Amino acid sequence: MGAPSKRARKIRTAAEFDTGRLQRSLTPPKLAPGTYAWTLADIVNARDMQMLGNFRLPARLSESMRTDDALFVARENRLAPQRCIKVCLKPAKGARAVSIAGEGEALFGNEGVGITPDPLRNVHDCLVEHGIAFAINVWTPREDGSRVDIALQYWPIEWVRWDAIKRCYVTQTEEGPEEEIHHGDGRWVVFQEGEHEPFKQAAAVLPAALVWARHAYANRDWAKGSTAHGNAKVLGELPEGMPLQDADGNATSEAAALLELLQAIGTSDSPVGIKPAGSKVDFIVNSSTAWQVWSELITKAEKAAARIYLGTDGTLGSQGGAPGVDISVLFGVASTKVQGDLGCIKRGLQTGTIEPWCAINFGDSSLAPSREYKIPDPDEDAQRESYAKRSAAFYADLKAAKDVGAVLTQEFADTLAGKYGVCAPIIPAAAPAPAPSGGVPQ
Q1: Which has the closest alpha carbon to 342: 77, 94, 124, 53?
Q2: How many CA atoms lie within 13 A of 296 on its CB side?
Q3: Nearest alpha-carbon partner for 316 in 297, 338, 335, 300
Q4: Nearest-CA neighbor of 270 among 285, 278, 281?
Q5: CA distance linking residue 222 with residue 353, whole number of Å
Q6: pTM exceeds 0.85
Q7: Which positions ≥6 away from 145 have C-beta within 8 Å?
Q8: Three-state secondary-structure class, residue 179
Q9: Which long-range contacts (CB under 8 A, 24 or more apart) does 266-269 make?
Q10: Which of 23, 131, 167, 229 could form a disulfide with 198 if both were Cys (CB 3.0 to 4.6 A apart)?
Q11: What is the pLDDT of residue 99?
């Protein structure tokens, strides 16, 4: 029997791509600036449009949700790793693959001009909000014809919709009619969290929409209540039998004088005054405790926003009922979502941008480099720390045995190393005892 075959891998060839079509420009339609006022019914309608794969209203809703402080902070924390985690270009096997990766470094590396942080920030944001994001490859032939360079650009999702008849995404363009979107065709790159209708599965805008509504309404009502609590009313009463109005219906001089006094007392400029005998001056304040309801609603909405975007409400610290923050534990929890996002982006870039670039410029994609995120691994770090502690304890026991005069054998070292779960060193064989000097006894 022959040698076992290698793992299946789809190899792209240059013949698959129509370079003439890829070099034609494609731009999204112009968007007229505007603002939106959202009622609860409008928010629910936009959420329903997201469920149908029609992203025009959900995109506008997502923009408006950024104005909320709780959602803004949680969202920025989710996106922050994309801007600070470095990348490396890992070549395939072989000397030619190393050479190809060297060329790709100028396009896809940390300082690359083909894949830059700005479009990836937009892609990541859209991926988190809608469960799917789109980008387009812009191809530029070099003047000498030796290579065709590539640059990734974000494609706004508001122009995209899911076509259930064609079973694909379609988009409006500035150049003409709708165009079908097919990932990996050289032009389009699709980043999605799931194969079947990801816009229903992993879109944060679905649960966050109503969180935004109740957080915003609670803040609004609390602000109104604050006005009522912070503005005390002054009420005056004339002595019994003293009229408020004269025969013509005008305020009497006594009523006018008391009213002037009340107005003076109600301001900080005249904190004192003299009231007539028998009259009364009362302050009416809002003693309602409804603010506790608003406080509870706001706290719960902030915790819900953090959980939706980060998978934890630990960013809230010890206030609001959230647990105290251990930054290493917090990163370990949040990193599960971050790793999922970056893994999705990595797969999209690999099959949608890097492999087509390699196929068009070098004949096929078999030697395409891979773009890797240097994500810290908390589990691996913990394992190394544990091994270091166990290794130190092992050598301490080994030294203690030697200090008491024990004979260190390989069997003893192996047994002790097994208990600690570490590698045993090679114990040199004991040197033979020197032979006694010979001679005839006297």
Answers
A1: 124
A2: 5
A3: 300
A4: 281
A5: 50
A6: no
A7: none
A8: strand
A9: 266/234
A10: 131
A11: 92
DSSP code of 159? Answer: G
**Predicted local confidence at residue 376, as pLDDT:** 67
Question: Distance between CA atoms of 210 and 108, rounded to whole angstroms?
Answer: 39
CB 114 within 8 A of CB 152: yes
pLDDT of residue 177: 83
371: β partners: 89
Q: Extract the tokens encoding 56.
A: 């025009």
Buried-exposed string 341-355: b where 16+ CB fall within 10 A, e elsewhere: bbebbbebbbbbbbb
Instruction: Say how far apart CA 412 and CA 63 lie, in whole Å.
Output: 68
* Coil, strand or helix at 169: strand
Closest CA to 185 of 371, 340, 26: 26
Strand, coil or helix: 337? helix
**Which phi and psi (to 5°) does residue 180 adopt?**
-75, 145
The predicted pLDDT at position 82 comes to 80
Nearest to 427 by CA among 442, 437, 414: 414
Sequence-separated (6 or more) residues with CB below 8 Å from residue 14: 359, 360, 363, 364
pLDDT tens digit sequence for 394-409: 888 888 888 888 878 8
- Amino acid in position 423: C
Task: Provide CB contacts within 8 A for 75, sequence distance 6+.
Answer: 66, 125, 128, 309
